[in-house]
Amino acid sequence: MRDLHVAVTGASAGIGAAVAREFAAAGARLTLVARRRPLLDALAAELAAEFATTSHVVAADLGDLAAATAWIPGAERALGPIDVLVNNAGVQIVAPTVATDLAAAEALLAVDLLAPLRLCLAVLPGMLARGRGALVNVASMAAVAPTPGMFYYSAAKAGLGGASEALHGELRGTGVHVLTVYPGPVRTDMETAARARYEPSFVADHLPTGDCVALARRIRRALARRQARLLYPRFYYLARWFPGVTSWVLGRHTPALRPPS
In this structure, what DSSP letter does residue 107 have? Predict the structure, then answer.
C-alpha cells in the first residue's frame, strides 16, 4: 500500500478512523472525508506525527448528493489519482418503522447507498483507464441478515452490498478490484447507540463483537489478497452460509425495541 492515495469517507471516528490509521501505517497518502472538520484535523495531525503521513482533509456532507463527489478533483490535485476508495460513511436509524421520520430515513439512504454509488462511478473511469485501483464498500451484516428495527438501514446496506458484489464480477480482468465488507457488531459509538435502542437480551449481549482496529487490519489484508468479500467477526460467516436459519433466529430472538424516551 506504500505511496498509494487512499480516500476514506466517514474518516472522523470509528471504523473510518481505524482504516485511515491502518493505511497510514502501511505508507499510504490519505484523503480524509467526513462532516466534522475538527476531528479530521486532529486525525491528520496524529497521522503526520506518528507515520509522517500526508493527508488531505475534506469536510463534506455526503447526504448532499448534488455535491457528494465535488471533493474528488481537489483531492486528486493534492495527492494524485485515487488508488483506493473506501466507502465507509454511514448513518443508522434503529426505530419502529412506522415511527421513522421520512426525511431522516431518506437522508440515510442518501448517505449509506446513493452517495457511495456516485463515488464509485466518479472514480471508476480513471481507475479503468489506468488499469488499476480498488473500491472498498463497507456494507453491514444487516445486508446479509436484515435486522428488525432497521428497516431503512437494512435496505441501504443490502443495496450497497448487492451493487458492490455485482461490480466485483463485472470488473474481473480489468485490474480494478472491488472488496465488499460486511461488519457485524463492532465497538463504535454508532453500535453502542444502536444496542441501547433494544431491550436487554442475553442472546444479543453475548453475540461476538469486533474491534475497529482488528477490522481495519483485515480490510487492508483482504485488499492485498484481492478477496471479494470480508465478514467480521468471522462468526458471522455462518449467516451467509445459512441465511434461512439466520432469518428465523433474528425474527424470533431480536430483542424488542425500547419505547421512545
Answer: H
Instruction: Give every strand in the sheet of 5-9, ordered side by side.
Output: 55-59, 29-34, 5-9, 84-87, 133-138, 176-183, 229-232
The domains located in the chain, with CATH, are 5-253 (3.40.50.720)
C-alpha cell at 79: 495527492
| Three-state SS at 208 | coil
| Tens-binned pLDDT, residue by residue, of the chain (261 aa) | 779 999 999 999 999 999 999 999 999 999 999 999 999 999 999 999 999 999 999 999 999 999 999 999 999 999 999 999 999 999 999 999 999 999 999 999 999 999 999 999 999 999 999 999 999 999 999 999 888 899 999 999 999 999 999 999 999 999 999 999 999 999 988 888 877 877 876 666 777 899 999 999 999 999 999 999 999 998 888 877 777 666 766 666 677 777 766
User: 81's torsion region: left (phi>0), alpha (psi -120 to 50) or beta?
Assistant: beta
Catalytic residue numbers read: 153
With 0.90 as the threshold, say if the pTM is over it.
yes
CA–CA separation, 195 and 51 (whole Å): 34
Residue of 142, 171, 27, 153 lying closest to 95 (CA atoms): 153
Segment holding 120, helix H or strand E: helix 115-130
In whole angstroms, what is the distance from residue 112 CA to residue 82 CA? Answer: 21
- Cell numbers 431522516 label which residue? 104
Q: What is the CA radius of gyration of the chain?
A: 18
**Which DSSP symbol is given to 198?**
B
